[in-house]
C-alpha cells in the first residue's frame, strides 16, 4: 500500500538559477508521482513517471541512486526514456526516505523489490539500473531476486581484483553530521564524491538543491551519516555479481576515478558470458551528469538487445 508524499515540490529553494537548456527544463518539469511505501518498518520514498499510455511502453525501469544521493538525480534522465515506464527510489537513510537503526544490502534489496512491485505490475518486463553504491545494491538484488527482473544494469560500480592495491581508492566514509545556518551556505558546500569537474553546472545545482533539508539545528544533508560508513562496502559484492540470477550489463565512464579499462575487464569476468559492457566517452564517475544523452542511449541499446533476445525465445 502506497501513499502520496507531502513534499513541497514548488518550494522556492528548489528553483535553479543557472541557465539550463530546454530539454533539461522539460525533463525536470515532467509530471511524476511522489509516493511512500513502508518496507520492513521504514518509509521508502519513490518517484514514478507513469505514462498515460503505459500499456504501450516496452518495459518498466527502476533507477537506484548512489551513496548519499537520491531519486532526484534521475529527474532529468527518466523522462528521456520515452518508451518505458520509469521509477526511481530513495534508499533508506537517503533522500526523502526514512532512517533505520541498522542498514544492510539485504534490507536494500527488499526495498528495491517492494518499489518494483509497487510500480510495475502485469506481464511487461522490468529492468533495474543502479549507479555507484546503487550498483552494489543492485548486485545484491540480482543475487537475491534476479529472476524478478529481465536485466540489471550496473553503472560505474567498481569491483577490484583480490590483489589490487586499494590504498589510493577515493572511497570515503562520512562520520559527522554537518549543519549550516542557511540554505545558500549549505548549497555552496555541496560537492560530488569522488570529486570531479561537472561542466553541466545546471544539473549540479539542481541535484544540490534537492539534497538539503531544514532541521532544528539548521540546514543539513538529507542522508543519514549512519548509512554512509565503511561497512557499506563490506559485503562480497563480487560474489553477488557472480551469483546474479538476471542478465547483467555494465556501464562505466571513460574518465571515471573509480573504474578504468582494467577494472571494467575484471568486472566482465564476474558477469555471465556475453554480458554487455559499455564505456561512455567524456564521462567521469557521475555519468548521468556528464553525458546524460549518451547515457540514455546506452541504456536504450541494452534494453533493446535484451528485449530482442526475449522475443526470439
Give an account of the 3D structure.
The chain is α/β, with parallel strands linked by helices. The chain has a single domain (19-165, 230-307), classed as 3-Layer(aba) Sandwich (Rossmann fold). Helix content is 29%, strand content 19%. It has helices at 22-28, 105-119, 133-145, 183-189, 201-209, 237-242, 261-270, 287-290, 292-311; strands at 2-4, 33-39, 42-49, 59-64, 84-89, 126-131, 151-155, 212-215, 218-221, 248-253, 276-280. It has a nine-stranded mixed sheet, sandwiched between helices. Helix 2 (105-119) packs across helix 3. 42% of the residues are buried.
CATH topology value: Rossmann fold
- Looking at this structure, what is the CATH superfamily? Alpha/Beta hydrolase fold, catalytic domain
- Poorly predicted ranges (pLDDT <50, ≥5 residues)? none
Question: What is the topology, as strand order, of the major beta sheet?
Answer: 1-2-3-5-4-6-7-10-11
Any idea of the CATH class? Alpha Beta
